[in-house]
Prior knowledge:
Catalyzes the phosphorylation of various hexoses to hexose 6-phosphate. By secondary structure, the protein is α/β, with parallel strands linked by helices. The protein has helices at 4-10, 17-35, 98-102, 105-122, 167-178, 191-202, 262-270, 278-283, 285-301, 312-321, 328-335, 343-353, 360-391, 404-408, 412-423, 438-452; strands at residues 48-49, 61-69, 73-82, 87-95, 130-136, 140-144, 147-150, 183-189, 206-212, 216-223, 240-244, 396-402, 429-434.
Amino acid sequence: MLDTxxxxxxxxxxxxxxxxxxxxxxxxxxxxxGLKRSTNAQATTKCFPTYVQDLPTGDxxxxxxxxxxxxxxxxxxxxxxxxxxxxxxxxxTYAVPKDLMIGPGVDLFDHIAECLAxxxxxxxxxxxxxxxxxxxxxxCVQKGLKEAVLSRWTKGFKCPGVAGExxxxxxxxxxxxxxxxxxxxxxxxxxTTGTLMSCAxxxxxxxxxxxxxxxxxxxYVEHVDQVDLLDHEFKREKKxxxxxxxxxxxxxxxxxxxxxxxxxxxxxxxxxxxxQQLFEKMTSGMYLGELVRLVLIRGLQKKAIFKLNxxxxxxxxxxxxxxxxxxxxxxxxxxxDTFPEFANTRRICKQLFGLEKxxxxxxxxxxxxxxxVSKRAATLVAIGASGLVNKTFDRKVVVxxxxxxxxxxxxxxxxxxETMHKLVKPDKTFDIMxxxxxxxxxxxxxxxxxxxxx
Length: 454
């Protein structure tokens, strides 16, 4: 049994039905604001049109390249689509050296083009015409399917000469400078669009794509008449477009203040982007472990956890002095544990504190702390997912999901479904499927669909 001290410690993370419903109403209203030209400037969720207007049918055939850049490594993939919802994927991972992450943008794109050329040569396709889909997971304003202007670098990149420029053109120019391969950049997308496309390739009912990993974002299929930011010429023939919600920024207008805890405020204040991406800071892998660390410090100070351990104050000091020592993956490991063994929890306590065999009661408390933090994150993701499912025009909607938190946490899927069952309209049915390599296979599918509709 858990005692009242731990329940009180975690109370601010437990969302009531009223709070869930209220966050839902505010989120839905914010998406509507983002879609309208007259209110978009005030909206926190910017709802950028991606210019991806066709979903895969599963019958796509041919060889396509995909390039996936979103961190300190990037991948080049050769995706062979064989029809019948089938695909073969071969890929190579390349490093982005530290000096290229902060050096001139032209050097970065020359490096990428060189790796592309090596990959193509290795696969004996130097003379083939290869359409390429480019997953570029940085904030961009999309101007067309293959035109995306970088708003700002994130994740440790700071290459001058790229912000405000079209990254599709920069990649195209780097390929042209080499002159030794025939690669056409036909589409630029972010990882949520790739996730949606990858799932739609296997299940035609997929209309929403969500990433819950280091970051958190979503996209969904919307009717073109609802998307004011989409130019009129794209509304004549096609009736739908994928919208990139950029929902990580939800809450920047104060919408989440009534559910944010003191720990959320601390994390935001200490982050490199204070007052930005508040929804992301409550849901994504970059912050969940840190939330648990801050809660544990408070729990140790209040004698709510490890209360009989003579080294309790020492444990608090270790956590205070070592930011990010409690990793998000520890949450997944602890929640995977079974009573009374608690093998992972005991291993983590030994690793963090040098504590041999933590007692069962403390293991239960630690597990409860992790559950409250991850369940709140999953509940918030479910609120957003429900809003997007309810916005779509289809009665049956599949949500494609990916990201390390969703993929590796033992109960995240279960927590999400629990809340969605309360919020999705009764006349709709929904399901969630795990995406298979959205940023790779999904990018190739966007390239395939783009080539098909030319």
